[in-house]
UniProtKB/TrEMBL annotation:
Keywords from the UniProt entry: Membrane, Transmembrane, Transmembrane helix
Record flagged with keyword Transmembrane helix: yes
Organism expressing this protein natively: Nocardioides marmoribigeumensis
Name assigned to this protein: ABC transporter
Stretches that traverse the bilayer: 12-32, 38-59, 110-130, 142-164, 176-195
Length: 201
């Protein structure tokens, strides 16, 4: 995987994902004066969504048709792109979480961590699935639609099934954590199938 990392990092720098991360950092900085209440949680929600969208935009490979003959396994290529992307995404998420926590100590950390993991893994599953099953080397924009759909569905659930901003204690909070875990497990299963090479299936 290491030989692929330089090209994966270059692909990230030349794409549009970095603009979303810049927007996330700008959002955190601009909103600092207002993060001393529940608004801090809303800012983290937006930062997480922007980070997931950045992941979705990081897997385009315009040279894919030429590189198909190269002896690189699909799982190895995906792992290199994932590492190169998370190298940029994770620091932004850490900054967003840290600022929100410093401004609003009752921040529901476990719930937001579960939400972050769910969105990032879902983004990886969507983009890998598009590359595998649609045979496209440019999955970014359809993947953005998939990430937004996941965000919409998780926010549109009725109160008894809430995954975003549930009651931050007791059974409703625990149930929301279990639902995020379920989403992560489903997304991991999709990802595991999507990154298999055709001859291994």
């Amino acid at each position: 995987m290491r030989p692929l990392l330089p090209s994966a990092r270059l692909a990230f720098r030349t794409g549009h994902a970095g603009l979303l991360l810049v927007a996330a950092v700008a959002l955190v900085v601009v909103s600092v004066p207002w993060q001393d209440g529940g608004f801090a949680t809303s800012v983290v929600h937006l930062v997480v969504l922007l980070a997931a969208l950045a992941v979705a935009l990081s897997f385009d490979d315009p040279t894919g048709d030429v590189a198909t003959a190269a002896p690189v396994r699909r799982s190895t290529w995906t792992a290199a792109r994932t590492v190169a992307t998370l190298e940029r995404v994770v620091p932004v998420l850490v900054v967003g979480f840290l600022v929100a926590w410093l401004r609003f100590r009752p921040l529901p950390g476990w719930g937001l961590a579960a939400e972050t993991t769910g969105h990032l893994v879902a983004a990886l599953a969507v983009v890998a699935g598009l590359r595998s099953w649609r045979g496209t080397h440019l999955p970014s924009y359809p993947a953005v639609g998939g990430v937004l759909l996941v965000a919409l569905v998780t926010r549109a659930l009725p109160g008894g099934w809430a995954m975003v901003d549930p009651q931050p204690w007791g059974p409703p909070y625990e149930a929301a954590l279990w639902r995020w875990l379920g989403l992560v497990l489903v997304a991991l299963a999709v990802l595991a199938v999507a990154v298999r090479d055709p001859l291994d299936r």
